[in-house]
Amino acid sequence: MDRFKALLANKSDTGLSVAWTELGMADLMPGDVDVRITHTTMNYKDGLALTGKAPIIRKYPLIPGIDFAGTVVASSNSEFQAGDAVLLNGWGVGESHHGGFSQMARVKGDWLVKRPSALSAAQTMAVGTAGYTAMLCVLALEAHEVTPAKGPVLVTGAAGGVGSIAVSVLAKLGYHVVGSTGRPEEEGYLKSLGAAEVINRAELSSPGKPLAKERWAGAIDVAGSHTLVNAIAATQYGGCVASTGLAQGMDLSGNVAPFILRGITLAGVDSVMCPKPKRIAAWSRLAQDLDTAKLAALTVTRPVEDVVALAPEILAGKLRGRVVLEVA
Question: Which of 14, 134, 172, 272 is positioned for an S-S bond with 165, CB 3.0–4.6 A?
Answer without folding.
Answer: 134
